[in-house]
Write a structure and sequence with these properties.
The chain is α/β, with parallel strands linked by helices. It has helices spanning 42-50, 100-103, 146-150, 152-165, 180-191, 204-212, 226-234, 248-257, 279-284, 299-307, 326-335; strands at residues 4-12, 15-22, 30-39, 52-53, 56-57, 62-63, 67-75, 87-90, 93-94, 114-115, 129-133, 137-139, 172-176, 196-201, 216-219, 240-243, 263-266, 288-291, 319-322, 343-346. Helix 5 (180-191) links the parallel strand 13 and strand 14.
């Protein structure tokens, strides 16, 4: 095996440069994985385009990407449940395992989590090989391809959102935002028996995709009164509202739209971290307001749903680019958002 590998390195905002880097060396509890596919996430796009996300600024070259799948090529001496050749979905955050959040089972809230492509600089997966804690390398059954394996990460966000909302069989829901997470939330809701779903967005091509996946749709830009339209559709309102757009306006709309006694789940981040909410209405309607940060204990469930054919992830994939074309792929994702749901980078050309 070579002692070096190729990595796509963010050298300045808007510029990815392919560089040779040393091959990772694994610890006893880790696996060395040849990366197959990596999805481009909104956080990757923000770091690529702006050089910062929120208050965190990129101060040195870094490798982006955290939605990954691959094939195990070697394991450390302490690893007993993975073998070379195993195809895996890679859960990108490795928590400390010792803090009160980890001990309580909420490891997604660990303050010392090691999360790929996060700041301060933690290298991501736009590279040919990665080392990773073996217990966060989830084996894929034969019925789940490596492209699907990379999309288990955003699907896990949707699974966690639906879990947190406590919505179930026979309920009704509105999803605000028809990007990747919104569409995956739609697929997750339908898999959970929530069939009465309306998706709201302003991009017609995304709404067409949502319609093809089983939702009713509303274009917020061409609907004169969104609240009136949804009231006419649901009567008192839907049982659950999922805000996935990360928009101050739609966050406030969530409160107005939801049924009295219903739930509102915030999944998306706003650009400035703020939202204008009618708190009095939130109280008057006795709504349950829930937020979602990443996910926990969702990978096995998400993989099982895809393996069973309940959720078809490739329906949300817009384009696949090779590692040699990673700059083009990122440019496409960033500058053609109206056309793109999910762009994916094929790191391994044989995958």
């Amino acid at each position: 095996m070579s002692t070096t590998m190729r990595a796509a390195v963010l050298t300045e905002p808007g510029v990815l440069e392919l560089q040779e880097r040393p091959m990772p060396e694994i610890a006893p509890d880790e696996a060395l994985v040849r990366v197959a596919y990596v999805g481009i996430c909104g956080s990757d796009m923000a770091l690529f385009q702006n050089g910062y996300i929120g208050e965190s600024v990129v101060t040195e070259p870094m490798v982006l990407g955290h939605e990954a799948s691959g094939v195990v090529v070697a394991v450390g001496s302490a690893v007993t449940d993975l073998t070379p050749g195993t195809r895996v979905a890679l859960e990108p955050g490795v928590p400390c395992g010792e803090c009160e959040f980890c001990r309580g089972g909420r490891y997604n809230l660990c303050p010392d989590v090691y999360f790929w492509a996060s700041l301060p600089v933690v290298e991501g997966t736009f590279q040919e090989y990665v080392r990773h804690r073996a217990s966060f390398c989830h084996p894929l059954p034969d019925s789940v391809g490596l492209l699907d394996g990379a999309l288990i990460e955003p699907l896990s966000v949707a699974f966690h959102a639906v879990d947190r909302s406590d919505v179930g069989l026979g309920a009704s829901a509105v999803i605000l935002g028809a990007g990747c997470i919104g569409l995956l939330t739609l697929l997750t809701l339908r898999a959970a028996g929530v069939r009465d779903v309306v998706v709201v967005d302003v991009m017609e091509n995304r709404l067409e995709l949502a319609r093809s996946l089983g939702a009713e749709v509303l274009n917020a830009e061409t609907t004169p009164d969104l609240f009136a339209a949804l009231t006419a559709r649901f009567g008192f309102g839907p049982d659950a509202v999922f805000e996935t757009a990360g928009n101050r306006v739609t966050m406030d709309q969530s409160i107005r739209i939801a049924k009295r006694g219903g739930s509102v789940t915030f999944v998306g981040y706003t650009k400035d971290g703020r939202a204008d909410l009618n708190v009095n209405l939130l109280i008057d309607k006795e709504l349950t307001l829930t937020t979602v940060f990443r996910y926990r204990n969702t990978y096995p469930k998400a993989i099982a749903a895809v393996a069973a054919g309940t959720i078809k992830l490739q329906d949300v994939v817009s384009a696949v680019y090779g590692l040699d074309d990673v700059q083009q792929g990122m440019d496409h994702a960033v500058h053609h958002k109206a056309e793109v749901t999910k762009c994916v980078i094929r790191i391994d050309p044989t995958a």
